[in-house]
Structure formats: C-alpha cells, structure tokens
Amino acid sequence: MSSNSTYPHMLAPLDLGFTTLKNRVLMGSMHVGLEEEKNGFEKLAAFYAARARGGAGLIVTGGISPSISGWLGPFAGRMSSSRHAKKHRVVTDAVHAEDGKICMQILHAGRYGYHPLAVSASAIKSPISPFKPRALSSRGVKSTIKDFVNCAKYARKAGYDGVEIMGSEGYLINQFFCERTNHRDDEWGGPVENRARFAIEIVRQTREELGTDFIIIFRLSMLDLVEGGSHWEDVVYLARQIEAAGATLINTGIGWHEARVPTITTPVPRAAFTWVTQKLREEVKVPLITTNRINMPDVAESVLSEGHADMVSMARPFLADPDFVAKAMRNKADLINTCIACNQACLDHAFEQKRASCLVNPQACYETELHFPSTTNGKVIAVIGAGPAGLAAATYAAQRGHTVHLFEQDANIGGQFNYAKQIPGKEEFNETLRYYARQIEVTGVNLHVNTRADSDTLKAYNIDEVIVATGVLPRELEIDGIAHPKVMSYLDVLRDHKPVGKKVAIIGAGGIGFDVAEFLVEDEHLTLQPDKWLAHWGIDKSYQSPGALTTPEDAEPARDIYLLQRKTSKPGKGLGKTSGWIHRLTLRKYQVSMVPGVTYVKVDDDGLHIRVNDKPKVLDVDNVVVCAGQLPNNALAESLKVAGFSVHVIGGADVAAELDAKRAIRQGAEIAATL
C-alpha cells in the first residue's frame, strides 16, 4: 500500500514476481497514427516518454500486427523482423530513460482488417468492414500462432518489457473464441475447449519462448455485448486457462467494435463496467486490470479500494494529461486536465486515418511540434472572450510569461461549454471548466468578468496584442412567423432556461439540434446513475445471457419532439464517426421523429407548417426551437483593427462551422505558442 493518504491503492506498487510496477495505473492501448508518419517513431518516443515521466506505472502501445494478414489497414504497423524491431528502439529507450515500463500490444485484426487479405476463424464478413475474410486452414491457424510468438520475440528485441496479446474487442482471437464468428468443426471450433485453444496456445507458446521474466498481458473480452456473444462460464474457463498458460496480468475488454452499446463515450457513466472485472476476480488469482471511463484519481481509487481489480487502465486520460499520476501523487487532482470522452480528436481521427490528438490537450501527439517555452519578450496581451478558444489562448500565453488580461462579458467563463455541460451525457464538460478556472489562478491570468471590452478598455491596459475569441451568433432564419411567441432559439433553452412546452419542433439537426433534442427529451441524466444506464442499454449485470445482453428498458420521453433538417441526408450524418450513432440511437429510444428533406413554410398559432417531399404538413407544436447554425461574432475584431490594434481572431469568431471546440482550443494554443 502506498503511503500517499489520498490515493493509497492507486499509488501502491504491484509486485509481478520478476519485476515491480511502481503504481496500479496502466496507460491503455491507443492507436495514435504516428507510426505511419515521417519521423513517426521519434514523435512516438516523445509521446510515450512524456507519459512515463508523468508517472504511468506501465504503458501499452497501440496495436501492432504480427503479420500482413493481421493488419488493421494496408501497411499498418507490423512487428515480424529485426528491421521492424530496430525502428521501435527509439521508443523503448525514451520510456526507459524516464524510468518507465512499456509493453507492445500485438493485435491481429482478423475480419476487422480493412484489406482483401483479411482472415478469420470462419469466412463471415463483419458489419464494419467491406472485405469478407478467408477462413484459416488448420495449418494456417498454427502458423498464425507462430506469428504471435515471433512478434513477441521481436518486441523483446526492440526493448519492450512485455506484450499485451489482444484477445478482445472482436479482433481475431475473440473471433475464434466466440460462437458468433467461429463456425468451425475441426479442433479449433465447436465446444469451448476447442474455441479457447487458439488463445491458450498463443499465451502458452509465447511464455515458453520468452521465459519467465517478460510481462504477458492478455486482454480478455469479459463482456462481448453482441448477439451470440460468450457465456459467463466460457469467459471464466478462458481466464483460468490463460492464467495456467502463463499470463502475468489479464486486462478487461469491453464490447466488440460492432456492438450497438456505448462503451467509452461521454454518456457512459464513470467506471460503468468495473463490476465485471470484480466478478472475474473471484475466479482467478492472476492480477486483473479493469477499464473504461476511469478518468480521475478518486474514481480509480474507489474502484481499487472496493476490490474491483488490481490495476486500472486509462487510455484517453493520458492523452488529456500526461502528468495524471504525478499530479495525483502531489495531491493536485484539481490540476488534472480531465478526459471528457468526446472522441473528437482521438478515436474520430484514428478512424479517419488522421493523427490522433486531444480536444482538451492539443499538445497530445504533437510533443515535438507544439511547445510553450518561456518568453524572453514579455508582452501585455488581451484575450476577449472566455470560451474554449479564449481560455486556451489566455492560459498558455500566461504560462509562457506574458501578462494576460482575459475579458468576458458574462459572469462566468466557459462560453458554449456552459450550454454543453447541461446536456444529458455531457456532464464531463464541467471538468474542463474546472481545469481552466484553476489554470487561470496558477498561471496568473487577470480575469475580468461582466466586462464588455472595446478599444477604450484596451487602451487603459497598454495592450500589445489582442486575441479575439468572441465566439458565434445564432444564425437567424427567414421564414414567415419567425417572430411568433412559439419560436425560441437554442440560447433561450440552454442559456436562459425559458419554459418549453410538451410538443416541440427543432429546426436544424446538426450538433446543437441533437444536443437540444437530448436536453428536452431526457430528464434523468442516466450518465450519473450507472445501474439505470446499464438497464437502459440492455446490459445484464447478472450475466444470464450470452454477451450479457438483455432487453433494454423502455425510455420515457419527457416531450414529443420532431428533429427537422433541410438536407435530404440522414439526420446526424455529420456527427462524430465514433459517437454519432449513439446520439441517433438515443433519440430513437426516446421516440424522437427525425425528418430530413424539410422545407419550412411558416409558424402560426396552429404550429409549424412544413413540406416534406412536396407534401404539406402542419406540426401541432407548443414551441419551435431554432438550431440553424451559427455565424462568426467578429464585428469587434474589425473595429479593433481599425483602431490600430494588432488583432488575432480565433475559434468561432474566426470560423463558425458547427461548434468546434477541438479547433478552437488548438487555435488558442497555437497562437499562444507563437506570440
């Protein structure tokens, strides 16, 4: 047990027999897209070194394939030769120089491979890849096992302290174990003993080849969350066999990529799935790692102190703050830049083959490119607007040593985040505002709230540079009756909390339209009620059925809502790649009518008159809420330029295409780095 009084369980060392981890925090695997870039391994080395320096007890890399057929996509990262191993040396050396430990994840995509060479247990196409896999022959299975062992051997050559064998999330090993995807009738299919053999042989032969002083983590799918998923008895059987085969640690895998249940996004309650790791802990002696939506030290501490696991895995929280553990050790959790599980800059980027980063920490994966060195030329800088862009610009500039005055016309900092944090499932946005409030204090930003800045205000402070971050204005619609008392803007609803009737039409199905719909239709804030949330999504804690799925509880809508858009495409099509489907499914659960291809005719006492496919229709609604996009609020910037100030425009005041906090915060950071 650690002597740290606040987080004694989280900061306690973990003795693995041949080596000791300095605490119970694993930085979980993430594919960040750096390996494929020019000088990618140097960038990767800086990325992982920062997390080792920040105190992670053990780091696991993004998935590396053991063979070409195991690629996630063409020319993805592979480890099958000395040449590959040599490239990774720079990464392992950088981590070891910071007194860290690092394991390489071996990931064979199986039928999730986005290429025509994909293989699987059986020739069954996945719903998320266009390529049907080839079924491995019995000989092919044996040579694939050898590929895993070979991959681990080269990982050790590359300086890794161990490997994580990816056996969950619906990848190849999971495909062999699960009856959903294994229809074989040879020694690798049929009864559980045969379906488990592939995983067991990989671990057993890897341990045999690598000896006793090498970490082998097996990532076990404890909850498949798909139809035809594993039974609990099968999960226990595999865990016991993996332990006997020589695994050092077993990590928790939650859900397949094709599962229709959210597992990692913002609406998922914190630590929503640790109960399943606790359930398995009664069945095995090997240390277990639990995972998913553990994003603050107090959450990790309670999970460990209540005996749910021996270790916690956090992936995205280390994107948000590399110094997560170091801050916890100093009892400074209030300084942690918390992961809000938005996926916008990490997973969404990964799925679009772009470099991952982090909405709240634009330096993530840009450690070699985005720096905030102390300035030798201190300036007096005015930042106007304390939304995400202004907060980032002000705090990074002050951190560098500039004198910063931050002007905000409202009583509180946060801008549009003050609306976002009210949406059910977006409660985490409160953490970003808490973080920036503390950053304003520790960096010495001079905050002026309830202050509308203009050129006279700025002259009084002898300002050298002005950063205008005044955000956006709602776009006004031009239709008959737009001034009718039934009509409201999204600001009336989210900012002013004006009463809204029981029947509502929302004009505009972009991000704000979806947010307003969720705000008006769900009263319960299920994210803050884990057991209710699990029941809502049909997850069975008693694990009576395969994959732990049960019939979802009916959702009671607080209002009848129509979500309308002019475009003929599917509503919500432009939402995030990894989270958009959840928002669409949530609104469907609450019986929201989502209607594309709408022409707006007029609003009157009868309601909203529209045409859909040239058919007129009157929606008998109490209110019409306009969420029809935004315009840059940049008039002030123009007048300051005329007054002779050096002006930089960032965030929504620069570009108002949807509310883009990711771009806003990055712009704020980049301008602060250059002034």
From TrEMBL:
Keyword rRNA-binding: no
UniProt-listed GO biological process terms: fatty acid beta-oxidation, unsaturated, even number, reductase/isomerase pathway
One annotated GO molecular function: FMN binding
UniProt KW keywords: Flavoprotein, FMN, Iron, Iron-sulfur, Metal-binding, Oxidoreductase
SUPFAM superfamilies hit by this protein: FAD/NAD(P)-binding domain (SSF51905), FMN-linked oxidoreductases (SSF51395), Nucleotide-binding domain (SSF51971)
Iron-sulfur listed as a keyword: yes
Residue span(s) of domain NADH:flavin oxidoreductase/NADH oxidase N-terminal: 11-332
Domain FAD/NAD(P)-binding intervals: 381-643
Pfam families: Oxidored_FMN, Pyr_redox_2
Named cofactor requirement(s): [4Fe-4S] cluster; FMN
InterPro entries, per the entry: Aldolase_TIM, FAD/NAD-bd_sf, FAD/NAD-binding_dom, NADH:flavin_oxidoreductase, OxRdtase_FMN_N
Family the UniProt entry places it in: In the N-terminal section; belongs to the NADH:flavin oxidoreductase/NADH oxidase family.
Listed name of the protein: NADPH-dependent 2,4-dienoyl-CoA reductase
